[in-house]
Amino acid sequence: EMRPNDSSIPRPKLSTKGGTIDYKGSDLLKDGVPGIALSSIELTRIYPQGTNQEVRKALLGKIVKKQVETATPEDSPKLVIEAVRYFANRAFRRPITDEIAQPYVDLALNSLKEANGTIPKALSTAYRAILCSPRFLIFHETPGLLDQHALASRLSYMLWNSMPDDTLRVLADKGELQDQVVQNQLFRMLDEPKSARFVESFTDQWLKLNQINFTTPDVKRFKTFDTVVQESMLAETRSFFSELIQGNQPVTNLIQSDFAMLNERLARFYGLEEVVLKPGGGLQKVSLNGDPRGGLVTQGAILKVTADGTSTSPIVRGVFVGERILGIEIPPPPPGIPAVEPDIRGAVSIRDQLDKHRNNESCAACHNKIDPAGFALESFDPVGNWRKRYGTQKDSAKVDPSGTTPTGEAFQDIQSWKEIYLKKPDLLVEAFAKQVLTYATGSPPAFSDREALHKIVKGSAEKDYGMRSILQQIVASEPFRTK
Q1: Cα–Cα distance measured from residue 202 to residue 183, given in angstroms and rounded to the nearest whole number
Q2: What's the CA dihedral at 204, 209, 213, 219 to 10 degrees?
Q3: CA–CA gap between residue 434 and residue 411 (Å, rounded)
Q4: Interatomic CA distance for residues 250 and 465, integer angstroms
Q5: What pTM did the predictor assign?
């Protein structure tokens, strides 16, 4: 039995007080010692759905249960050493040297020598130390071209949020993770159910879906919105993105698509009565035939996370779409500039308020980049419903979704705004590639990576800008394969 909370095992005391980190009487912060301080590690679930045999294999490798139960005092050290080295190899995601393994082997053997020492207790001691090691908690990447095992880890954590499986490890051990092999592994891993982790985790960060609970819409104003609708919105966006990847759909679907992923509740909420759904079919792919709901940017989850629950702001939505979909670099606002607060009563349009704000020349330069996409999305309220006025009264201000893009193209509404960007797939590919590279490497692409981004765009253009093809170009790129 492995007992991660066994308090009988001595451990060093680490305390944090008043901005200091004390370790054995030394102030690590004051002494300039680099590192990561962990106050606790909580295990909520170990090996979900794993059988006893699968768990034993993950912990012990080729050692079987009978060997542990019948081990003699002479055999026990050999079994412990074999198990520790096996576990450390997996945990550290690369073959380990004798020098790296020795401290953990010593911990296990010392525990085995103690009174009432058993193999499970000895392994628990060593495994705990392994799981607290920086080699487990942090990616081992040296500057320059990644070695085979670092590349395997980067690919696996990007797509599966987990360590490389046996297939990737064997390829890395043999030094065969090169070019076409890496791309083949990309496709293999995308086709596995575990790729759903990439869809959820990436969309959480890229589209801020993990912030959908940040605001609660006013139930008096938005009576048809509830938790079922909200969960359906999340499922809609994630399944839509998954469909783009699995079907290698063109990147322009981020702007406009001829299909959506809907269930009966969500179709009713959006007012899409003409949509044909299979009764009781749950979330399903349906045709939209040019409806402005098509595409990612006009999905309910996106519209909700870019609103505050009571009102919308072209600034917030414009920054979101500009940075995350169009790849427009938007600088932070100058200091001392007050925020523009929408009139929640709907008596004064946000456009009128922004016109006064934009009279300031320093403000106008940024708002010319920010506002157009935000204005186009003003036809949708804080929960993603279509609207023509800001309030419910007859004298409420009318929504004006027109504007001019940063490059000078005029549009009248969300549909004509979409038509402009449907003609710019190169821009969409580069923006998406930046988001994926930031997610996969932990660092946004630098100015020096511009040539690599151009190659990604060019390579995906040769394959009709398919989303899976874009990922294929990304994992072949220099930023992905280097640190």
Answers
A1: 19
A2: -170
A3: 27
A4: 5
A5: 0.85
Distance, in Å, from the CA atom of 152 to the CA atom of 189, rounded to the nearest integer, reads 12
Strands (E), 55-130: none
What gap in Å lies between CA 176 and CA 28, rounded to an integer?
42
Please state at what angle helix 361-376 crosses helix 314-324, rounded to 10 degrees: 80
User: How far are the Cα atoms of 116, 142, 377 from residue 218, in angstroms, in the given order?
Assistant: 62, 51, 20
What is each CA distance from 216 to 70, 98, 200, 213, 308, in whole angstroms? 60, 56, 22, 7, 8
H or E stretch including 257?
A: none
Question: How far apart are the C-alpha atoms of 288 and 275, rounded to whole Å?
Answer: 7
Angstrom distance (rounded) from CA 372 to CA 314: 8
Per-residue pLDDT of the chain (483 residues; tens, 9 = 90+): 233 333 434 444 555 555 666 777 788 777 877 776 666 767 666 677 778 888 888 889 899 889 988 888 888 999 999 999 999 999 999 999 999 999 999 999 999 998 778 999 999 999 999 999 999 988 888 899 999 999 999 999 999 999 999 999 999 999 999 999 999 999 999 999 999 999 999 999 999 999 999 988 988 889 999 999 999 999 999 999 999 999 999 999 999 999 999 999 999 999 998 888 888 778 999 999 878 899 999 999 999 999 988 888 898 999 999 999 999 988 877 676 666 666 555 545 666 666 665 666 667 677 888 889 999 999 999 999 999 988 777 778 889 999 999 999 999 999 999 999 999 999 999 999 999 999 999 999 999 999 999 999 999 999 999 999 999 999 999 999 999
CA separation, residue 1 to residues 38, 108, 118, 124 (Å): 25, 15, 10, 8
d(CA 289, CA 293): 10
Instruction: For the chain, give the number of residues.
Output: 483
- Pick left, alpha or beta for residue 280 (phi over 0 → left; psi -120 to 50 → alpha; otherwise beta): left
Q: Given the structure tokens 């969300």, which residue do they identify?
A: 414
